[in-house]
Amino acid sequence: QANVAGERGPGVGPEELRPLEEPSVMKGVTSMMRKTKVSKPYGSWSSKLTSEVVTAGALRLGGMQFGVGGRPMWLEGRPQEGGRNVLVADGTDLTPKDMNVRTRVHEYGGGAWKVLPDLGLALFTDFKTQFLYKQSLATTDLTPLTPEVENAELRFADFELDATRNRVICVMEDHRGDGKEPVNSLAAVDLDGGRAEPVTIAAGSDFYASPVLSRDGTKLAYVSWEHPAMPWDITSIFVVELGEDGLPSSEPKLVAGGPGKEEAPQQPQFCPDGRLIYISDEGTGWWNLFELEAEGRGRSICPMPGCEFGGPPWMLGTRTYEVLDDDKILCSYSSADKPTKTLAYLKISTGALEEVPIPYGSFGGVQVAPDGRLGALGGSTTKPVEIAMQNESGDWTAVKKSSSLSLEEDTLSLAQVIKYPSKNGRHSYMFFYPPKNAEFEGSGDGELPPLLVKTHGGPTAATSASFSPMIQYWTSRGFAVADVNYGGSTGYGREYRELLKGAWGIVDVEDAAAAAQYLADQGMVDRNRLAIDGGSAGGYTTLACLAFTDVFTAGCSLYGVASLEALAGDTHKFESRYLDYLVGPYPETKQIYKDRAPIENLEKFSAPLMLFQGLEDKIVPPNQAQMMFDICLEKKIPAALEMFEGEQHGFRKEENIRRCLDGEYNFYSQVFGFEAAGLPEGFVPVNISNLNN
User: Fold this and answer.
1) Cα–Cα distance measured from residue 546 to residue 540, given in angstroms and rounded to the nearest whole number
2) Ramachandran quadrant class, 317 (left: phi over 0; alpha: psi -120 to 50; beta: rest)
3) Low-confidence ranges of the chain (pLDDT < 50)
4) What angle do CA 380, 381, 384 make, to 5 degrees?
5) Phi, psi for 348 (deg, rounded to 5)
6) Residue 429: exposed, middle, or buried by beta-carbon count in 10 A (0-12, 13-18, 19+)?
7) What are phi and psi of 677, to 5 degrees?
8) Most buried residue among 76, 262, 412, 429 by CB atoms closer than 10 A?
9) pTM of the entire structure?
10) 537 and 458 in contact (C-beta within 8 Å)?
């Protein structure tokens, strides 16, 4: 999803509130035959968008690559198979039914597969064992490549082919030692199938990413960073010479970024002639494309303050540009004054951009076929995400859709971009979706719709206006939805991104509350029915809003952070020092952690709370949700808790996704006192303890 959404710009001021684009679905005849709408209270509208419709056949498409002869290949995440990820070649499953293509490096993963068309192979990491496999694209035969280590203690991701030496260089995460944290490195894995111990190429830093070889195989570039920095905060790009044996023959040379610099370079790539290209926010604070000059200095190829050519590297393997030749790059970027992304060719020597037409406002994972045709994972405001590629005439056609769901114009709620005022003279940004249903309208008599404010995870991330059936589920029932890019979100440059530096639980809370207040003040929503929800970091913001403001009258947290101290002491390596950036070093600032933790401030709660949690979550341990619920019971606060076996950080099983959607809706119907419509047959109502209080 992150790869699809990309980064979003701030949009326009409230006085210019407008939809992003006009829908092209079911115009003409449909608009001439509109039915007279039935008046019914907001929130209780019947909708064809049931949870079953929203999730039925829905796939998580994880990017595409071109195989032998330009054959399209992609990754499908299937909720109906427990969230299993399957590698698909032009509609045919390649992954055996007992395997799941997913890596646990950094826990968030990414970069779990790579197609090697010249060798007729695909590489992938199996989730259960974390073994790296090669698979023949002709026979689908499998060969394990990495040592047979128990308990998934050796993990691999982000593969770079070293064809000359018949190996791949990749990120390796080793959990076999007795240390507090696993050891991350760059390692070489032989493709011969001998399952030998991988050979270390680079080690000593806390984290590594994006290994890339020069075309002649003599140089390796990569990204590294150290605790407590995150990969969007302070990173380094190094280049190291490789000898004929494939081992480093020189000390790594720092070429971009580095400790102590407020820069986060990413995504190095070599031109055919050996020049290095990369993305950096050096100088302007905006991720732009750079070229490493012969003198060792970085030159901004096309300086565009206000535009982002990269994004926050939460997952490994993400690439937002491709070097095509010594003077041409295929790139994508978002703009601070434009709600959609742009695809373009960039001339390195002049910095000239040539826009490439693409029928998607948000897209990612753009790939180039041997014949020059493009493929991508594309999304728009009007239809679900799909894998698409150009035909011989250059037109884009869908190869695989994430969902068969299609909405008519009179049912589809389009996002409206709003820039709104927040605290201390700041402004923040939201996508606002008004309630919309072909058959119903509000009951009149001055009734306004309930509002659901959505707070994205991360928190160093962003939401977008891409079509979301989950949002349409709410708007088609009579809810208004505000999807907020609070201060600290990405896509607006480093200055906006760093608004959360030391201020998590303050700026995000202020901006989420200000969004609800703004819409209520404008007479667009009912200020007595203001709900908020979010997952992960968005769940924390949800809980903090309920604890530290009196704006919201109900809230729902999905695998959200309740205790900052618990998170600081009980999370995985990748995020183990993230709170140093967001809150402050621990335990030196222990009191701040307590002051901002919802679980430490329950006496300030009064609004009913819904909690959904996965029992196998390694990022936000389930004991936090249990502690939160237990204290709510003790304090007589209306609350409900539902735990899901087999779920981790983010729900993948279709039945659980449906339960969360319907359960949250049922929760609000009980709290706000309206009749829920369209719940599935046999639905068990959410049990809200202390509701009478």
Assistant:
1) 10
2) left
3) 1-33
4) 60
5) -65, -40
6) buried
7) -120, 140
8) 429
9) 0.89
10) yes
Task: Tell me how long the chain is.
Answer: 693
Return the pLDDT at 346. 98
Smallest CA-to-CA distance from 383 within 456, 477, 454, 469 is with 469
- Between CA 631 and CA 37 the distance in angstroms is 45
Instruction: Confirm if 91 and 108 have CB atoms less than 8 A apart.
Output: no
CB 4 within 8 A of CB 401: no
The CA R_g of the chain, rounded to the nearest whole Å, is 25
The pair of three-digit structure tokens given for residue 149, joined into one six-digit string: 């280590």
CA 265, CA 556: separation in Å to the nearest integer?
Answer: 36
* Distance of alpha carbon 110 from the chain centroid: 11
Cβ atoms of residues 369 and 375 within 8 Å: yes
Which residues, 6+ apart, have CB-to-CB distance to 48 below 8 Å?
A: 411, 476
Structure-token pair, residue 414? 């389009």
Amino acid at 37: K
Contact 374, 367 (CB under 8 A): yes
Strand bridging mode 396-401 / 440-441: unpaired
**Closest to 209 in 3D by CA, of 279, 126, 298:** 279
535 vs 49, 366, 619, 662, 691, CA distance in Å? 22, 28, 12, 16, 23
Give residue 670's pLDDT.
97
Residue 211: what residue type?
Answer: P
Decide if 61 contacts 402 (C-beta within 8 A). Answer: yes
Question: Distance (Å, rounded) from C-alpha 438 to C-alpha 35?
Answer: 8
Extract the tokens encoding 421. Answer: 């005022």
